[in-house]
Design brief:
heterodimer, A: mainly alpha, B: alpha/beta, 10 helices
């Protein structure tokens, strides 16, 4: 049994690659859209604020699986997306709604005086946002963002529902063939744990690395 | 109950997709599309040995897989396999993501409303299982009503239990192996599942056969999109051929009865 399970490891490892790829791409898509939405909510006019609020409201209200089914099955008749692309898109869009709120909090946590000081030194509003506010906001966002990263890594398993054999689906296949669900799912659980553990360690390192000690005292 | 949420979500999606699909102009028949592409995209749920599973080389294997490959060979096309969870198969077929389903799926009237079925390729036989050390005696399927029952959700076994034993205590599982695990651990008393799929679990030990029966009188068939008459006719013709030649009987002996 252990021998058969160890022979299945390369297959599971390949599934892990899919899990990593989906997670990284989804987080990246979510990051780009999320930061834009957060800026719309904080600095935008009425229309932009309203749009961003509605987008966040709807996508946080939908289970990721529903978003995925809509992207894959309903849009399927006009755009033929592969399960992989549909998964990255659906999870990325869902994640963007959560990330938007993380970044909105992070931007609003930067003290008002920073913007005033930047404007007083002759920067435009846009320059102040890009050069003064966002760099500090990104630092503020790391702890919350590492939560979201862990959620996305685990949500990536939903993609199996539309037929992409990532880590969880492959574990199910192997468990069914070897009839050893306990062993195989323990292995899968360990792999997911290692993935989130590594992600969180990386982000803690980044947080420490980018810390500005004087800033904390100045507040 | 996670499962029911999933099914209802899927239904909503299926409904939406039919609405979208209904707006599309009529195209060539499904059979013509398949012949032109030189391949048929077949969906299955590769977690149900010995009918369909991934073998040691991570290739699709099992009774249904060999049968479908033979059918495709006789059509003169190749098979592109897609592994989709059992719940998602009908949705994927309706959305046009796959051309056919072969997944030890029984042709029930409910499913027949959503898809078209070929003639059956295998008669249904069901097993009622109990733990090895259990003294439960099952003389007819109705006897299950007194005990805690485990079934795989979305199967005809679940449907039979819901219809005939509405007051019974039922645990529903996403996959058959989960029901077997709970049977062994004593959380449930009986499991109703497909007879052939049960054989492998019985050989593994810990459980035994209490009754062999045919719960629904329904049989396994290949599902194709609704209205694809030409494809259904072609598949019917080949399945009949394979039955007449004894190909299916031989395959059943090899995969479903004589398992090591």
């Amino acid at each position: 049994m252990l021998k058969a399970a160890s022979e299945a490891l390369p297959y599971l490892a390949e599934g892990t690659m899919y899990t990593i790829a989906i997670s990284v791409i989804s987080l990246f898509v979510g990051l780009i859209i999320g930061v834009l939405l957060a800026m719309m909510r904080v600095y935008g006019g009425r229309l932009a604020r309203g749009f961003a609020s509605l987008y966040i409201l709807i996508l946080r209200g939908f289970p990721s699986l529903v978003t995925l089914f809509i992207v894959y099955f309903v849009f399927a008749s006009s755009v033929n997306l592969s399960p992989f692309l549909a998964g990255c898109f659906a999870l990325g869009v869902t994640s963007s709604a959560y990330q938007a709120e993380i970044f909105r909090g992070a931007i609003q946590a930067v003290s008002q005086g920073q913007m005033m000081a930047a404007r007083a030194l002759g920067m435009s509003r846009w320059q102040a946002i890009v050069h003064i506010i966002l760099p500090q906001a990104f630092r503020n966002a790391i702890p919350g963002w590492s939560n979201e990263a862990a959620v996305v890594v685990k949500d990536s398993s939903l993609v199996y529902a539309v037929g992409l054999a990532e880590l969880l689906r492959r574990s199910q296949q192997v468990a069914a063939r070897l009839r050893a669900p306990l062993l195989i799912f323990a292995i899968a659980g360990l792999i997911y744990f290692l993935l989130t553990f590594a992600t969180n360690r990386l982000l803690s390192w980044l947080e420490e690395r980018l810390r500005i000690p004087q800033m904390l005292e100045a507040r | 109950m996670k499962h029911w949420r999933l099914v209802s979500l899927l239904l909503v999606v299926v409904l939406l997709s039919t609405m979208v699909a209904a707006c599309k102009p009529k195209e060539k028949s499904k059979l013509d599309q398949i012949m032109e592409a030189g391949k048929i995209v077949v969906g299955t749920s590769a977690d149900y040995p010995p009918f369909e599973y991934m073998d040691e080389n991570n290739e699709f294997a099992g009774f249904d897989v060999v049968l479908m490959n033979e059918i495709a060979k006789r059509m003169g096309v190749s098979v592109e396999w897609q592994d989709i969870s059992f719940d998602g198969l009908i949705g994927a077929l309706k959305a046009g993501k796959i051309d056919a389903i072969i997944a030890a799926m029984s042709a029930t009237p409910e499913r027949d409303k959503e898809v078209d079925f070929t003639i059956p390729y295998l008669e249904g036989t069901d097993a009622i299982l109990v733990a090895e050390d259990s003294d439960i005696v099952i003389n007819s399927p109705e006897d299950m009503g007194k005990y805690k029952i485990g079934v795989q959700s979305g199967t005809i076994h679940e449907q039979w239990v819901d219809e005939h034993l509405p007051d019974a205590q039922v645990s529903r599982y996403e996959r058959a192996d989960q029901a077997i695990m709970d049977l062994k651990s004593g959380r449930i008393d009986v499991v109703a599942m497909d007879y052939y799929a049960a054989q492998a679990y019985i050989q593994q030990g810990g459980i035994k056969l209490a009754l062999t029966t045919n719960l629904s009188g329904e049989n396994m068939a290949i599902a194709v999109p609704e209205g694809s008459t030409e494809l259904k006719a072609k598949l019917d013709e080949i399945i009949q051929q394979l039955k007449d030649e004894g190909f299916i009987d031989k395959l059943a002996m090899e995969y479903l009865v004589n398992q090591e």
